[in-house]
């Protein structure tokens, strides 16, 4: 079931388009990663979805009664407020009754791991703590759709791990759309990928489908030395590529299966160090797709 549909969304500044003809659908309780180089239009798109920026044209349709939480790329906190005061304020602004706001704020701060820092002023917070607090203000009213602009990009690996784990826990009953340029992390939590460049969507689909289209999987056979690899490659009838002591066999319709390769290798006299199946990472695919468009 879709909870949000975007049709031909466009934002122009004068002659320039920040976002052009963007169309996609968010299915309920899925995670979508919006990726693209700097200036691709990610922030502009998320700001339009969060209703902070009006589109020049196009249409956004949301499911009836949909509640939305938004974490901006650079969230602003009032340094003189404590984390609890700030989150309570966010709770009230998002429509939670005053009586319940404090309890809901403290529960949310517990969920994001800020329980012990709840009564500290936000001005003293580290980058990682601020990112958790930003997440807390975005989820305090338990929205059904969570829009996150670069929620992990400014964090160190430990901070990224922690925020990714929180997002994964949230994803069980929340639909998440987040932008990022940390593609290894995106690979971990994504039902749908949206690749943007110069304001346009240049590729979209599930991780598996995008990989199938671009990953050019191959079987990698590692020999003890380049001479052995070259000698082996010379005897093959399959399409192959030789790189030093490694032979790569592309896997596609007419290529060999792993089983066929293992059968051939079982009678080999050469020293084989290893055989495995390799596919490109999302990072490699992204660079390829962005360079091609
Ligand atoms: N208020 C504005 N006026 C004019 N141009 C703008 C405005 N806001 C954004 N742009 C332009 O629109 C394009 C898309 O910007 P946007 O911030 O959405 O990209 P982004 O993908 O979020 O980039 P980043 O990864 O660097 O945050 C850029 O070329 C930017 O210069």
Quick recap:
This protein is of the alpha/beta class and 293 residues long. Helices cover 35% and strands 28% of the residues.
Give an overview in words.
- The strands form 3 sheets. Strands 5-6-7-3-8-9 form a 6-stranded mixed β-sheet, with helices on both faces.
- It has 293 residues and is α/β, with parallel strands linked by helices.
- Helices cover 35% and strands 28% of the residues.
- The chain folds into 2 domains: 2-212, P-loop containing nucleotide triphosphate hydrolases (Rossmann fold, 3-Layer(aba) Sandwich), CATH 3.40.50; 216-279.
- The chain has helices at residues 42-49, 83-93, 98-111, 127-139, 157-170, 183-188, 207-214, 226-235, 258-266, 282-292, and strands at residues 2-13, 16-27, 31-35, 57-62, 68-71, 145-149, 175-180, 192-197, 200-205, 218-223, 241-243, 246-250, 272-278.
- α2 crosses α3.
- It binds adenosine-5'-triphosphate.
- Keywords: ATP-binding, Nucleotide-binding, Transport.
- InterPro entries: AAA+_ATPase, ABC_transporter-like_ATP-bd, ABC_transporter-like_CS, DrrA1/2-like_C, P-loop_NTPase.
- This is ABC-2 type transport system ATP-binding protein.
Topology of this protein?
Layout: E1 2-13, E2 16-27, E3 31-35, H1 42-49, E4 57-62, E5 68-71, H2 83-93, H3 98-111, H4 127-139, E6 145-149, H5 157-170, E7 175-180, H6 183-188, E8 192-197, E9 200-205, H7 207-214, E10 218-223, H8 226-235, E11 241-243, E12 246-250, H9 258-266, E13 272-278, H10 282-292
Parallel strand pairs: 3-7, 3-8, 5-6, 6-7
Antiparallel strand pairs: 1-2, 1-4, 8-9, 10-12, 10-13, 11-12
